[in-house]
Amino acid sequence: MGVKKPSESPPLFPRHNILGVAISAINMQDALTTIRGWVEREEPNYVCVTPAHAVMECVKDGGLRPVYNQAGLVTPDGMAIVWLLKLAGFSRVNRVYGPDLLRAVCAESLSRGWRHYFFGGAPQVTERLVARLRGGFPGLQVAGWDCPAFEGFDAAQEAAAIERIRESKADIVWVALGSPRQERWMAENYRRCGGVLVGVGAAFDFLSGNKPQAPRWMQRAGLEWLFRLASEPRRLWRRYLQYPRFVWLVFLQRLGLRKFPV
């Protein structure tokens, strides 16, 4: 693993209840500070990168909510989440977007010797991602990568995959299995893997160049969903059909007309 340095415990950032999901009121630097503390103390943990549709998945599936709420960080990935946190008085909050977090941690790791493992994605996508990251961050330490075929992935195969992660001595494990599968997998296995697991979903596709990212102005305006829907309508239309209900439920929660316990 990377070089360990004496570290104080990272600060415990406040969380805010959005429809029963306790979102960490943080910005990118806060996320880096927290992850750095875990790595330096060799403390296993996991991070859920959380847009509005992930919150709605937790509303639909009560069993998923503890998976998020027990994570070390539940980052505000979507602008709707960021705006709600700011409305609640957390003025320092900014978006902690999966692809940006991956790149920021890679940059941070260069001087610290952290080792990265990439778990998930299609083989050609993950290989291209690793090549691009090595090109963009010379000296990046890649401990390995694995692209499991989760259809028919039995307990023995899963145990072997986890053992490969452990043997790699990775400090950071980037998990891209799709939501909510990746969140459930991290919650079940982060202690067995031994590092810091970060679920980043489509970040492998975006940073490898396999899929286009929304322009920054659309991201800042909260319109990334529209760009992605236009790019992949058949796959994503059901996801974004939930957004009007998200707005309505948040309205009810803020008025105190409906309770969403954490």
UniProtKB/TrEMBL annotation:
Record key words, sorted: Glycosyltransferase, Transferase
GO molecular function annotation: hexosyltransferase activity
InterPro entries, alphabetized: WecG_TagA_CpsF (IPR004629)
Listed CDD domains: Glyco_transf_WecG_TagA
Signal peptide, first to last residue: none
Pfam families hit by this protein: Glyco_tran_WecG
Highest taxon, organism lineage: Bacteria
NCBIfam families named in the record: wecG_tagA_cpsF
Protein name: Glycosyl transferase
